[in-house]
Amino acid sequence: MSRLLKHRELLLVAIIVALVAAFAYRAPGFASPESLANIFNDTSILIILALGQMAVVLTRSIDLSVAANLSFTGMAIAMINAAFPEIPLAILIAAALGIGAMLGAINGLLVWKVNIPPIVVTLGTLTIYRGMAFVLSGGTWVNQNQMTPDFLNAPRLPVLGLPLLSWTAILVVVVMVVLFTRTVFGRALYASGGNPTAALYAGIDVGRTRFFAFVLSGALAGLCGYLWVSRYAVAYVDIAVGFELDTVAACVIGGISTLGGIGTIAGAVLGSLFLGVIKNALPVIDISPFWQMAISGLVIIIAVTFNARQERRKGRMILRDAAKSRARPSELAEGAAA
Amino acid sequence: MTLPMPAAEPFAGNDVPIMEMRGISKAFPGVKALDDVEISLHAGSVTALIGENGAGKSTLVKILTGIYQPDSGEIVIDGRPVQFGSAEAAIRGGITAIHQETVLFDELSVAENIFLGHVPRTRFGLVNWKAMNARAAALLHSIDAPISPYTRLKDLSIAQRHLVAIARALSVEARVVIMDEPTAALSHKEVEDLFRIIERLKGQGKAILFISHKFEEVYGVADRFAVFRDGRSIGSGLLAQTSQDQIVRMMVGRSVEHAFPKVDVAIGSTVLKVSGYSHPTEFDDISFELRRGEIFGIYGLVGAGRSEFCQALFGVTRPSAGTVELEGRRIDVRSPSDAVAAGIVYVPEERGRHGAVLQMPIFQNISMPSLSRTTRAGFLRQAEEFAMARRYAERLDLRAAALSVPVGNLSGGNQQKVVIGKWLATKPKVIILDEPTKGIDIGSKAAVHAFMSELAGEGLSVIMVSSELPEILGMSDRVLVMREGRMAGTWNRADLDAETLVRAATGNA
């Protein structure tokens, strides 16, 4: 399995490289370093959100409220910035993380304590959080000229050739790799999605793990609220509408199993990059955005089929076990003990 | 065969069987489930199929209903050999079954539930609702069930649903009706109603195969019996001429087939003391003491509340009353992690479902309940995890290409070793093994038993839940028998004998 997963990530890399090469053939300059850096920068927000989504999906849940969370938090931060320009940016970013985490915690509590299916909870909070953004702003926009220069420029600040936005995504990826593979929480994510009962018996609190997955997803959505508003230099109620589906798509394309317990950070990042490349390339070669949606959809279906075939491999393997025990008679007893 | 039969008189049916199974054998990899068994069913007669758990009753039912195909032997109906290649073929052959847990559909009407799969149709191929509801009403009337065919199933009580399941079984033209533990979910009054229906079916000349653990019911409703043990036919005949004692002896009277490697261990001081442990719905007033190095068997029929009790002890569910003392200190187990921390671990019955996270590598599965020992400030230390996994893999002779291989890639026996290894790695004081050898072959069983002795020898206390009498008799220092959620008694090894335990478990005093 792990070899197959690695294989899958290599496959994604190959597909992305092939896509870039094909687009570069039609539109020279597409594969230039500046263009690629630009694509990465453009995909940064998706990568961050997809990693939050991945934490949730690993626990057999889904968070459909990330884009609404982003919209509300982005609006709140932009309004604070407009009203109190003297508040330093660091505090605003901390506030964005905090507000996002709070909205995520609401999802998490409803799933954990009230026992409502995640898809229903987040479908509900999706509309509620957007509605809150509308109530908060009264439907008005926060424009570029109301925001402080610091607030607007920070993500664009170039550091070692890349804008700070890209570095933020890279930092989030590194932190998530450590969190997912090197901490008890990360292990609990995989265990509680892989086999909730076994996890429970091993002393892992599945409900609490899920709750914190939602908090994490919410916090990252909050951070992206600031990044989005700052990058596009405007805050209004309808920013990032439908973007939650892109985050789910990135996870699915990257091989995060919707049944929980399976998936790697590399997969989620590559899934996001794949969508990023397509989104940036199609306009370059003059294909309408509607085709872009259809192509994304097609890729998701192919990816899900691929995942399903992978799942199916996990049968009882009676024949293989039998062959093994024939090969090594001493193990006959074990082979039969299925 | 179509003689008029008064239902009230004790009547053992026609002497010529309408259905016979001859020389039926069925093997699964490593296990011979049925070995040359015979059974015959007679029109207007109830035959009770009796045997311990694992005697092969369910396999026989599955063969009769076309779900399994026998390896050898024949099924003869009215003197003609038949073959059931599928469940549908068995139904067409006139065989229908009522199972212990009925599978019905909450949102559909009673009539739809009864005819699902063979809905009456109109000329145009559409559902003939009128005919369906009328036939459903007639069927329900024929079993005295006052239920409207239009009612949604979800509005019915458990007992009423059972009647619907019976009506469903009778909605096909059946001559043989199999009832597999039909009373398991019913109250006393509902059992009486069921028996009335059985009398009615007898009166219609149907042959009934009745499977039950309860002697009271067997003697109450059946005319004939057949006893199975370890997949073989042991005896059959008329119940009126056979005493309960004779039947109990047939069920258990065996020479112990493989020597149990029970090693005598010096029994130490009390480790675990359970007093008055109760649960609002599953078990009541369980008390015992467990000593160091002791193997403590818990025996009972399926559904006696053994697993439920052990799960409460492990913190999966909360008890309503009672206390637990571990090494003289009272402990309050609110969750499995509390239990693991205190030194109590539970190896569940369904290891595939409850035991391992199949997608995860071996080493992560083994370290899972011991993460507090392999982490520092919430960060995992992989070297420690690998060291721990290597220790227990070696000790259990686990065969795998590498410890980073997902557990799902291992054979069943090796998966089980991972599950056991993961619990041993927590260095427990008490280990609860729920049906440790269920569904595994003789060779692996012996290995598990040897390992249990080894654990006891190292001073661990073992609680072994088992439905297999030879295992209980062979391995336990003491045995607690549970019946219907209550203690039926405890016995020391010296006083153990099969018949006493079966009597205690079945309530046949």
TrEMBL record, chain A:
Identification of the protein by name: ABC transporter permease
Q: Where in the cell is it found?
A: Cell membrane
Q: Name one Pfam family in it.
A: BPD_transp_2
Q: Does the keyword Transmembrane apply?
A: yes
Q: Name one GO molecular function term.
A: transmembrane transporter activity
Which UniProt keywords are given for this protein, alphabetically ordered? Cell membrane, Membrane, Transmembrane, Transmembrane helix
Q: Which InterPro entries match?
A: ABC_transp_permease (IPR001851)
Indicate whether Nucleus appears among the record's keywords.
no
Q: What is its main location?
A: membrane
Can you cite an annotated GO cellular component? plasma membrane
TM spans (from-to): 36-59, 66-84, 90-112, 119-142, 162-181, 188-204, 210-229, 250-278, 290-308
Mode of membrane association:
Multi-pass membrane protein
Automatic annotation (TrEMBL), chain B:
Q: Which PROSITE patterns match?
A: ABC_TRANSPORTER_1 (PS00211), ABC_TRANSPORTER_2 (PS50893)
- Entry's Pfam families? ABC_tran
Q: Does the keyword Phosphoprotein apply?
A: no
Topology in the lipid bilayer: Peripheral membrane protein
Subcellular location, principal: membrane
Name of the protein in question? Sugar ABC transporter ATP-binding protein
Q: Where is the ABC transporter domain?
A: 19-255, 266-509
Q: Which domain of life is it from?
A: Bacteria
Protein keywords = ATP-binding, Cell membrane, Membrane, Nucleotide-binding, Repeat, Sugar transport, Translocase, Transport
Q: Tell me which SMART domains the record gives.
A: AAA
Instruction: Please name the GO terms that the record assigns under molecular function.
Output: ATP binding; ATP hydrolysis activity
Cellular localization per UniProt? Cell membrane
Q: Which family does it belong to?
A: Belongs to the ABC transporter superfamily.
Cellular-component GO terms for this entry:
plasma membrane
